Amino acid sequence: MSLTEAEKNKDLGGFFAVHPKYDCPHLTDENFNRDISFYSEVTIKSPCADCSNVGENWVCLKCGQVKCSRYVQEHMLMHAIETSHGISLSFSDLSFWCYKCDSYISSPELKEILKAFQTKKFYSHSGAIQENVKEEEEEEEEDEEAKKEEAKEEKKQEESKEEKQQEETKNEVEKLEKGLEELKIAEVTKDFNRKTLEEFAEKLRAGVFKKIAIMAGAGISVNAGIPDFRSPGGFYSKVEKLGLPYPEAVFHIQYFREQPELFYSLSGDLIPENLKPTPTHYFLKLLEDKNQLMMCYTQNIDGLEKDAGLSPLKLLQAHGHFDSAHCIGCKKEYDINDLKTHIKESTVAYCDKCGKPAKPDVVFFGEPLPARFQSCAFMMEEADLLIVIGTSLVVFPFASLAEMVSKNVPRVVINKNLGDSEVWKGLKFKDPNDKRDVAFVGDCDEIIRELVNLCGWQEEFEALMKTN
Length: 468
Prior knowledge:
This protein has 468 residues and is an alpha/beta fold. It folds into 2 domains: 3-114, Zinc/RING finger domain, C3HC4 (zinc finger) (Herpes Virus-1), CATH 3.30.40.10; 198-467, TPP-binding domain (Rossmann fold, 3-Layer(aba) Sandwich), CATH 3.40.50. It has 15 helices and 14 strands. The chain has helices spanning 3-8, 75-83, 111-158, 161-187, 197-205, 235-239, 253-258, 260-266, 279-289, 304-307, 336-345, 371-377, 422-425, 444-455, 458-467, and strands spanning 57-60, 66-68, 87-90, 96-98, 103-105, 212-216, 293-298, 315-317, 320-327, 333-334, 358-362, 385-389, 411-415, 437-441. The strands form 3 sheets. Strands 8-7-6-12-13-14 form a 6-stranded parallel beta sheet, with helices on both faces. Strands 2-1-3-4-5 form a 5-stranded antiparallel beta sheet, with helices on one face. Strands 10-9-11 form a 3-stranded antiparallel beta sheet. A hairpin with a 5-residue loop joins strand 1 (57-60) and strand 2. Helix 3 (111-158) packs across helix 12 (371-377) and helix 5 crosses helix 14. Residues 190-458 form the Deacetylase sirtuin-type domain. GO terms for molecular function: histone deacetylase activity, NAD-dependent; NAD+ binding; zinc ion binding. Keywords: Metal-binding, NAD, Transferase, Zinc, Zinc-finger. Residues 129-173 are annotated as: Disordered. Its cofactor is Zn(2+).
């Protein structure tokens, strides 16, 4: 689509973040500057050069000009038409837009620019978190050391010579046992040579991975009664009959502002009652109990990970949740139970203070992800295994997490089917020479149960499910 056509269609908006264009032909030197230092003076708070707006701005990736979005005074659109500079980046959600394609775009060529602006937007926040954690850890270590010294002194006074000898003998035995265990683990490498579920189970059982990152999607909640979104017969296929420009419009913030009744009339299926976690949810908790889980990043808003017992410290709900709600106008908190009643009755919940519609604290398309998402995203670099389960990796920027792990870290996919996004294209499931990527296609719960059995974890897994 040309820039002229984009101008004609500007009122339609560009709400295609869930399905970005992966083959944009305009990623050339004529359209964007690859030099990261070129953007050194640009900040997330930089105002629009034309109207000084600091709300919804974009930066032109060709000249570095900061302009406001089409929902303010559309200065970036005008800039693109006047200059033919096609590629820009949103400060709100760090998405990329090509005005010549009239579409959101994604490409490995944009990866370094994305990282640079992620750092600009979130580094200070994540740095502060890390600094606080570091200070707390240092204080805890000091207290622990003091306690240890007191304990040692008491022990010296109370222990007899015979008890000391017994303690020394016990320590030697433990060292030998630990050494043997380390030798066993060393024999099991991180490489996937056979790419079988048995091989994966062998690695988990041996404790090869200590910092597992999970990326979870709607596929893990289907068996709990939550409707799948993109599969045939899923939620989006049902709303296609309504004549919307695209099914995801139901969850776009701009459509919600203008037609909130659309969301309230169609979302009843999203909050079914009496839901129970699936075996896959309990598997996440099992990994936490075994001290092998670093973090679970989930797209799901159902909260079933927490219902399975997963600690909030190990869970990042990237797309928000249904635990609370707020007015989109004055931001006043709205009673979530009352809002759910409105959804069930297909009536809009309005704020009693300003009259604007209330919305659950779910991230809609067009809204930025929570700040904690980006601060935790940097943890991906520490992961020693990535498991992608129940997601087709088409929603950005969530899908970009899969590309943030170190280049030698194994990536395991468990899903009903394989996708065709740019992220999927970077996974080498079928390459006989690749020892990093492996995929298990089928029902998530069935694969997880088989994996647990192969690991020899059946008893504790069943006990965990009964306890919760």
